[in-house]
Amino acid sequence: MVDDPNGETAEAQSIEAATQAPPPTESENSAAGPNEPSVPDSSQDSGNKSKSSTLSFLSRLTINELLTFLLGVGGLVVSLLTFLNAQNTSDLKGAVKSLTALAAETKRQADATNGALGEMRKQTGKMDDEIRSLRSQSDATVRIASSANKSASAATDQVGVMRDDQRARVSVVNAEIASPLSFDKGGAHINIKFSLTNKGRVTAEHAFPFSIFFTRISATEALDKIEKFCRVVRGRADSLTVGSVIFQGDTTQEHVFITMSPADVNLWIKDSVNTASPRVPMIGGCVDYTFGGQHHQTTFVYELDGLDHTAGPYTNEFRAIDPRKGIVQPADLGLAINPGLSGHSD
Questions:
Q1: 283-318 pLDDT, tens per residue?
Q2: Per DSSP, what are the bridge partners of residue 194?
Q3: Which of 4, 95, 103, 200 has its CA 20 to 30 A from that of 77?
Q4: How far apart are CA 96 and CA 187, in angstroms?
Q5: Are 198 and 248 in contact (CB under 8 A)?
Q6: Considering only CA atoms, which of 169, 105, 135 is closest in space to residue 343?
């Protein structure tokens, strides 16, 4: 293909004509003022010159050169994009590398933690073994203590048995009415002969049957009254100035003259007409004695009743006493004992 010099010249002329600045308009000249000369814009002139130079350069290129130029520019753009892409890839690789390092460090710490946990498990296992050992020792100690306690209890029981065996034990074995039952302004009076026996293995001293004469409605009332009376006796100083010395296996008699208070006699007379629940005269108390320097007591309780000699086959059957009839002879009186209320010793 042969280039046409005339064609190129015409093309260049057309480009140059297109790049020339148009003449100023009337409005632009009037804006500059009627009396002021228009001042050309230097920045505009330099820009126009740059554009003119560029277009002049491009106008002088052939189509092949222009295509080659465009291809070169395109290559530069591709190279720039490739460079930027490579930079982004490098950053991504760096980030991946950092994540890899972080994962490795995390794994190392996890391994270290796992190792510490394993050591703690070992220590915990040792502690569990020690605790089981301590429990075993504690159980053995408890068994030893329990055995020792049982031995001590057995020894204490043995000492108690020996002590109980080697002591005095005095009680009332019989009680007889030794005088009539009489009444006066001072109350009701009677004399009782008590037989006391020492069934223990040690000599008893100051053995005496302290007694009270009273009326009651219930057995509980009688027991409460006797218990209070015996507590008073235990603390009395004269309890160590009366009574007898009773050797082991021996029996002795003590006469006790006892009196019922006028108030109790009046209650007895008042309730004697009440056949549903009459008052019953009672003689009770405790045998107080000493051995080894200590007081000991054995209780006794008797009910004073009349005897009916005309009851046929039931001769001498117990009957109620009427205190309004005055004196009652010993032959017409009897003492009824309740084994469940008497004979308790300490």
A1: 999 999 998 888 899 999 999 998 877 765 555 677
A2: 175, 254
A3: 95
A4: 122
A5: yes
A6: 169
